[in-house]
Amino acid sequence: MTRIWLLITGVLAIIVFATSLLVVIPNTMIGQVRVPSQLAPYTGQQARGRAVYVAQGCVYCHSQQVRDPVYTSDKDRGWGPRATVPSDYVYDKPHQLGTMRTGPDLINIGVRQPSDQWHHTHLFNPRSLMPWSIMPAFPYLYDVRDSSSLKPGEVFYSVAGGKLPTGKVIVPTADADALVAYLKSLKRTYPVPTGNEPAARSIGGRSEQTMP
Amino acid sequence: MTATLSPHVVELTTSITDLENLDIRLRADASSRQVALRAISFSVIWLIIGSAFGLMASFKLHMPDWLVSSPVLTFGRIRSAHLNAMAYGWASSAMLGVSVWIIPRLVHTELRVPKAAEAGLYIWNIGMVLGIVGILAGYSDGLEWLEMPRYWADPFFVIGGGLVGLSLLSTIAMREVEHLYVSVWYILAAFIWFPIIFVIGNWPTFSGVESAAVNWFYAHNALGLWLTPVCLAAAYYFIPKILGRPIYSYQLSLLGFWTLGFFYSLNGMHHLIGGPLPTWMITTSIVASGLMIIPVMAVGVNQHMTLNKRFGALRYSPTLRFIVFGSVAYTLVSLQGVFMAFREVNRLTHFTHVTVAHAHLGLYSFVTMIMFGSIYYILPRLLGREWVSEKLISWHFWTVGIGQIVYLVPLTVAGMVQGVAMADPTSTWEQVVKAMMPGLIGRSVGGTLLTIGHCVFAYHVWLMFRGARSRQGLPPFHEVAPIITRRTKASFVSGGAA
Amino acid sequence: MLPSSLTVTLAITILGLLTVAAFLWAWRKGQFDRINDQAMLAMDDDDFNVARPWETVAQRAERVAAHGPTQLPAVPGIWGGAR
Ligand code: HEM
Ligand code: HEM
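^ inputs. structure came back:
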């Protein structure tokens, strides 16, 4: 080979071809996804919780997808009633599909664990609930306080499993409250959208409905 | 230009018969010297930083209450700091250095606009610092392989990589040879591909599953169109050169180049097998993954046949030893990857530590080992002195060699057990977690060995830069005793490491 | 949706045809002639004159026959820039 331009052309052709096939075509051709009527956009607090989820890097241990029950046991493990579909993720930006399950899948954690108490004590120290858990503790999301110092109306939780000295309780920070609100919102149990829903939009995410 | 090299070099020119050839290499090396030396020193610093993060992440997975009081040190942040410090700091900086050093040699001329290359290197590394600080401070973009903040770290990589690419391109344009060797193809292609895919990967408009598709389109191409080609280029240069015989089949290497580019670029969706994407996208990537057999075997057969009947060379040259280790790992990791891309296998191995083991077989045993080998060859030639101690090289090789086995084998096995346990809906999550524990602990032990090896290597590089008195050595191959396995009384003075 | 998919299909087809054309052109122009000789591009002449301790007698004889006698080693301690 003696011609650089030939080499450069070939190299560019390869990347243009691949980008067309895997980025441009999906964007233009199959980009029409129905917004499921049962799926509400994230509220401000849930969106903040999602940002906390992203910033702590939860995705490195938790996926958010249920694969096809025909050839995986995701459904049988109780992670969701059906495989998830593109429209389940219209409000997700950035996506958090994940490639690792050091911990269980979370796309339906809001169904499995609806309790604030459970989430807060679990996040404060997972081993307070499951001694064998290897999930990191997130004590920095909580204020540890004397139960005597609580003001009336303040929300607090006690922690089981000997993870706190007696007389101490945890008070969630705003971040912790937001994170739990987000986790509780993770529910993709409605039936797969049939296509009769009103609003069609591009999964390209250029609509204002995406998470702020 | 000899003035910038050590005084020995001037002497050397008179002691070698083939002056013209030598002169080309001297001119080439002198022109890339400064950039390549800087790049290598930056890369070694990132190697140490990345090892600290990796080791910390590894221990955290079986000591979950260790260092949890600050968000900066939480597993998720340390882990992505590790990935980015290693892939973009260590491997990429080393690759920048190797590229600016190899290209002038292969096109028989000086590195052009070396100032641009040097500026590019600095800009890249500034981006690294901003990126790692951003991740640790909680400003991750949230996309694997693209965590560094989109607006205040990522532009540095496009501009920095682009500037180095510009310098390489002008060098190639001013070449004094007619034909371009295959290593030049790989490097040139990688420097064109990288800025393009990096911009696409960071494009801010995507959301939902499309953002996942673009994420993995980028991440796979970062492996296949950036890290892999430069490392293959180094292997295609050093193996023939050290053995003194040209590559077995040049046709095969060309076939390997074009098929690598064409198939690798379509591989990305195999990271999302079973995920909520249109099936045709995933199927396309699975087919392209299967076809990767072609470039992989082209490289594997070629390098094996070049080395054939000369395996004894591995005992003499550390460069060759590290690079052949890396090349074998390339074949292994790719064949493993092809299997992991099939739905039947992937349904078990996806989401398990088999993937992490595969990632390190690729990024450690292939990429990192090839970069170690290249640095062993390049540094003595740029500094005008031999490596200080064969013992240190030996220690480096054996700690990282054994470290990799201890890291990879238990993790792969544990990952498989984890996958089988997860596939059985009657197993509890507690059983799944317990299944992966031996692998997690094995990784910490292996990772500790690797980190020790990295410290030995960094210390040795530091001794080199500091100008520690090297033992007076002969150029490579005049050394009689094998210098890695065992040191007997040599009839020549010691040396000749690379 | 249809027009844009048509555009993309068309663009890819044109790109593909251009690639094929470039390849044929390169072939006709002799870019792929004597291809195995290009493997020598990585080698410098003196790479072949250096004796290597792992060579067998036969391998050494073969190399010397093809590339001339082994060069004397350079002076010990001399490193920079070459080889
Ligand atoms: C000191 C030696 C090393 C140790 C102890 C180490 C440890 C780790 C750990 C604990 C993880 C997280 C795995 C998980 O999420 O379960 C990881 C991921 C990763 N490391 Fe390393 N590592 C080392 C060296 C390297 C090197 C040299 C590179 C690259 C040049 C590298 C590249 C990566 C990549 C790409 C991932 C992400 C893997 C994935 O997403 O599947 N590591 N490493
Ligand atoms: C033909 C070659 C290859 C094929 C077909 C292949 C296939 C795969 C597949 C299917 C996965 C996804 C595993 C999963 O999540 O279930 C994967 C992950 C990975 N591969 Fe490969 N691989 C190949 C070569 C390589 C090479 C040469 C490298 C290193 C330079 C490499 C590095 C990685 C890394 C780092 C990951 C983990 C990505 C992440 O999750 O962060 N692979 N590979």
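The beta strands of chain A are 32-34, 142-146, 168-172, 200-202. DSSP finds five helices and four strands in chain A.
thumbs up if we can close this ticket
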